[in-house]
């Protein structure tokens, strides 16, 4: 009877003097290299995909804008050329962020692009966008307000109303409602007096510039804060030593100024 014997294959023994663990180490290193190559390859591929997405305007949350539609956008202070390019792309002002970034970088104007609020049509040309961002945001409309010295509070509010387009009633409301504050506002006023009397002498005469659309409180608080600064810059020690407050000093100065104005008006 013929008997068949099978001998299990055995891995070749390493040459004499070779550590038993070396083959396993070599296999582990080889596996690590394969994994590393795969990771690097995926990173390169992902960068290419993201670059393609940037170039064609694919961005998370990007809204479609009809060409020619006015688009409002904001460029923050310190924004890089890349950040600006993405803002323009995401808002629909341009369609190719990578090309815009390359254009402003290679032309040397990237550092000249200015922060601010802008409006441009969707799909604007690079030349138009660059020209506007270098020029800077358009200035806001302002009006000039001149408040002369020696006016009573009612007269002063009339001047403010005439220059600003606001009504005297709106200005009075801002003063009496507490929207406008002053650390020198007296706690009490003479009995029977108009509540506005408390604000006599607390709004600084001067020439100011305000943005069109400024609220009554914005305007009057500026005048009140300016007057506070002038009071704080004075030395009231002698007046206080005589038992008066800075507010008393303002009233006295206001009376003297009114008398001087009357003298000038006399024939």
UniProtKB/TrEMBL annotation:
Entry keyword set: Cell membrane, Cell wall biogenesis/degradation, Lyase, Membrane, Transmembrane, Transmembrane helix
GO biological process: one example: cell wall organization
InterPro entries the UniProt entry points to: MLTG-like
MF GO annotations: lyase activity
Pfam families given in the database record: YceG
Protein's recorded name: Protein YceG like
Transmembrane segments: 24-45
